[in-house]
Each structure stands twice: as C-alpha cells, then as structure tokens.
Amino acid sequence: MHQRCASTLIMPKVWAATMKYFILLAVLCLANTEDTERNTPRNSAIIVASKFSLSQYAVEGMDYVMDYRLYNIGDKTAMKVTLDDRDAFPTQAFEIIRGLLQVRWERIAPGQNVSHSVVVRPRAVGAFNYSAAQITYYPSEDAKEVRIGYTSAPGEGYIYRQKDYERKFSAKLGVWLVFVLLVSVLTVIPFALWYQSKSRYDQEMPSKKSK
Asked: How far does the signal peptide extend, from start to end residue (predicted)?
C-alpha cells in the first residue's frame, strides 16, 4: 500500500520541484538585476544572464542539456558579447555532443534577449558543481573597457550511474503504463458497448421499415 501511494505521488513531487526551481531562478535573476542596476551607471548596456538545465537528471553516458539566456536591460547596445562556460564542463568529465561552450554575439540591442543551448554527456559519476558561466561585453559602441559578468549558477548536482538511474527511476515508466492501460480500459469498453448497441439498432431499422 505504501509503495502504491509513493508511486502515485511521483508526478506531483516532480511538478512541485520544477516550480520551486523556476521560482528560485526568477528570484536570483531579479536579485542580480537589482544589484547590477545599483552598481552600474545608466547610459550603458547591462547584461543579466541565466544558466539552467533543461534535463531533469544528469546521467553518465546520457545527453544533458544546458540552456543560457542573456538579457540587455540597459539603454545602450552591448558589443562583442561573449559567453564562456568551458571551465564548468572540462573535457575529462564531459563530452560535448552539440553546441559550443564559448560563443559570441556581435551585438545585443537594448531590450533584446538571446539564448544558447549546449548538449553534453557526463563521463564521470558522483557529485558535481555546476558553476556560473562568464559573460564579457563592451557596454556601448564607443566603450574602451570590457565589462565582466556572470550567469546564475545551478549549484551542486549529482551525476547518476546509468544502471542506478534505470533501477531508481524506471518505476515511473511503470506508473505511466498502468495509467495508460486504465485509461484505455475505461475508454475502449464504453465505446465497444456503444458501437455494439448502434450496430444492433442499425440492423433492426431496415427490418421495421420493410414491415
């Protein structure tokens, strides 16, 4: 009974964890924005950036997707904007499957936002710290000094061994299969009864008309 209840609560727990993560991300971005606005004079570009995972779990040998978002909340165009996250994903610990860990945009206009995604594949197993990516840019077209900033940091996570991941989370697939089976039964049986009744009615109608 306890196992059945735990399985039923899997999806609400995942949803709650996801909502909690996005609320935390919004708070971090807001705090970063307020701090930047206090310490940076206007009449310049101000880049705030976020970094977060689009994958629910990091698993050895499986694709792990990181997403980056950069926003220019200033009133000038940011020039030669560079995102560098090579230190967070060393090649001895991660294989780069798709995308680049160092990218550049020639300019980001005021109010504009850009995004970038990278797919990596963990080589190692265990705890891992997902640090912030570095952002560099010139705050205006005539600026001489480069400005340095950072994205939000996802923090410490855990990379599962593939066998452990399948053993621990494969139960969720079973829950979904049971759900689909129950829905199918509740849908197919009424439809079959209705179709049988309709067919019998269609067969009786011509005989009544002939009489």
From this structure: 1-16
